[in-house]
Design brief:
single chain; 588 residues; alpha/beta; Nitrilase/N-carbamoyl-D-aminoacid amidohydrolase; Rossmann fold; 2 domains; 7-stranded mixed β-sheet; 18 helices; 20 strands
Length: 588
């Protein structure tokens, strides 16, 4: 039997010409490795998610034309938006045939259109019913490079496994299974996917694929997008699963081609992308799983989290033509890890850290910031802000004398933002923020101060995960014979914003181990106040944490984009009202 090439692709949204060129290159690599057909990812030609670009008919039409006219050395199924039949209806999320043999189609009533997505998710980060019309016809690609393939698009595979929040009216996997029961000889079913990453997603996606293969009683192949687009990350891990549960999984965080031999799992191979700027983070090792193995033993959660955050920043900058980064380097754990992420994503020569001590800054913080910068090989500048601070305090003396003490503390954060933004603007760089999810949840961040920047690499990373990432960056440096970038002092000193004498975060927050547990259970697990108390948390602590979470929504509406790495991130998956009088003390 011939081989199938799953084109694990990292598209740039809207860059139709470049996307088609890269897809063609991947298709060529697939052919050179022995594949006779190629399968792209969902909406590969325009990139996912294109959001409101889909409301421009010209964009949809040009995407379709680009997909149909792609030059490739073998037949390829390409994900593309398909224009609506008239101005009163929405386009569809579809799949077309391109490359050689694209026009010699039998039993395909839609010509070169092979499939159109049937199930449109509207939960979590998805809003596909806003853009697309759902179809009720399962796809079938006959006489396709020697194959007959069932064709599905991303969500189409999830209903059958019971992995959607609510039931759809139809089941595309069951439709294809019915064809096989009626005697249609289908070699495999493919799924063109743009399945966003979070740290628990892989095992769920694998379970979906295994269920589909078992129901269909033939191999199920999933080509998944890789890379970052805006706040969404895609881990790749394209895969093939056989009906008995055996699976072969492509690497994460790398663009390339998974060559699938439907008859021999041991003959599956991985071919990395030839593009000079192709995403290539982590190991290129294939994951081979026996029936019943959910892959969790193969997945290092902190390694995946670290690679995901690096990927998010790297792709955001590459796709936005941003070549350098500026950040505040305080000597604390968050700025140290943010600097590590930036140095790995863009190269240390393209990262500038500013140490901006105030009268409340300790010498060890200044020294720790310098240690991180020197260990990473990034640029470092020292700019004490006490003179600026004194000047502004003098100007606002009458106001500050009778005002809230936080107003005086926040002046320091906002003065630092002036310096960071000044460096960024002067050098054509992007300022990045260094705050983590735990602090953002509790409002421990200053609007127009440490929240000022174009991207928040740690914005969906809990505080204790930041410490774990610091250990991972240190391990990577040590394994290469380099100085560990996060010093012992940074790892062990009490977290502090150093905006007041002897200030620490735990003056007003519970220990981060406890805070993270409460926040994760509430934000991602849906536990309410009574549930959290029943789990053993102190009632007053729970009320304080949930109240601060509610009162600081206005800050989160103004935070920069952050790469989504948790099952529920602030942003598209967290849609709380801004002007609200919800009070946890009244509803518990």
């Amino acid at each position: 039997m011939s081989k199938v090439g799953l084109l694990q692709f990292d598209p740039t949204v809207g860059d139709l010409e470049q996307n088609v060129l890269r897809l063609s290159t991947l298709a060529t690599q697939a052919k050179e490795a022995g594949a006779t057909v190629g399968i792209s990812t969902e909406l590969a030609v325009c990139g996912y998610p294109p959001r409101d670009l889909l409301m421009e008919r010209d964009f949809v039409e040009r995407s379709m034309a680009a997909a149909l006219n792609m030059s490739a050395p073998l037949p390829v199924l390409i994900g593309t938006p398909i224009p609506a039949e008239d101005d009163r209806t929405l386009p569809t999320n579809g799949v077309v045939r391109s490359g050689p043999d694209a026009t010699s189609i039998t039993n395909d009533e839609h010509g070169r259109i092979v499939a159109e997505k049937q199930l449109l998710p509207t939960y979590d980060v998805f809003d596909e019913a806003r853009y697309f019309a759902a179809k009720n016809r399962s796809g079938l690609a006959r006489s396709f490079g020697g194959f007959t393939l069932g064709v599905t698009v991303c969500e189409d595979a999830w209903q059958s496994a019971g992995m959607t929040p609510s039931s759809y009216a139809q089941d595309p996997i069951e439709h294809i299974a019915e064809w096989t029961r009626q005697g249609v000889d289908i070699h495999a079913t493919v799924n063109l996917s743009a399945s966003p990453f979070h740290t628990e997603k892989f095992t769920t996606r694998l379970a979906v694929a295994r269920h589909a293969a078992a129901v269909l009683n033939h191999p199920f192949l999933l080509a998944n997008q890789v890379g970052g687009n805006d706040d969404l990350l895609f881990d790749g891990r394209s895969l093939v699963v056989w009906p008995d549960g055996r699976a072969v999984v492509a690497p994460s965080w790398q663009e390339g081609v998974l060559i699938v031999d439907l008859n021999d799992a041991s003959a599956c191979t991985w071919v990395g992308s030839h593009a000079d700027d192709a995403l290539c983070i982590g190991s290129a090792t294939l994951m081979v799983l026996e029936p019943g193995d959910d892959g969790s033993s193969f997945v290092d959660t902190i390694e995946e989290l670290t690679n995901a955050v690096v990927t998010g920043l790297a792709d955001y900058c590459r796709k936005s033509s941003i070549g350098s980064i500026v950040l505040g380097l305080s000597g604390g754990i968050d700025s140290a890890v943010a600097a590590c992420v930036a140095a790995e994503a863009l190269g240390p020569e393209n990262v500038t850290g500013l140490a901006m001590p105030s009268r409340h800054s300790s010498q060890h913080s200044i020294d720790d910031a310098l240690h991180t910068a020197q260990a990473l090989g990034m640029h470092h500048h020292l700019h004490p802000i006490d003179g600026m601070h004194t000047s502004v305090e003098t100007t606002l003396a009458n106001v500050l004398a009778n005002g809230h003490p936080v107003a005086g503390e926040n002046l320091q954060a906002r003065l630092r933002a002036i310096l960071v933004m000044g460096y960024a603007n002067a050098n054509g760089s992007m300022a990045v923020t260094t705050g983590n999810k735990s602090e953002i949840a509790q409002g421990y961040c200053t609007l127009y101060g440490d929240m000022a920047g174009g991207y928040a690499p740690l914005g969906d990373v809990y505080k204790m995960e930041v410490y774990a990432m610091a250990e991972r960056f240190n391990q990577r440096a040590s394994s290469q014979g380099k100085t560990e970038p996060v010093s012992v002092s940074t790892m062990t000193k009490p977290p502090s914003a150093e905006l007041a004498p002897d200030q620490t975060d735990q003056d007003t927050l519970p220990p981060y181990e406890r805070l993270d547990t409460i926040l994760r259970a509430h934000i991602e697990g849906g536990q309410n106040a009574d549930d959290l108390v029943a789990l053993g948390h102190d009632a007053n602590t729970v009320m304080d944490v949930l109240t601060r979470l509610e009162r600081n929504e206005h800050k989160r509406w103004q935070m920069p984009p952050a790469p989504r790495v948790s099952p529920r991130a602030f942003g598209q998956g967290w849609r709380r009202p801004l002007a609200s009088n919800h009070d946890w003390r009244r509803v518990s």
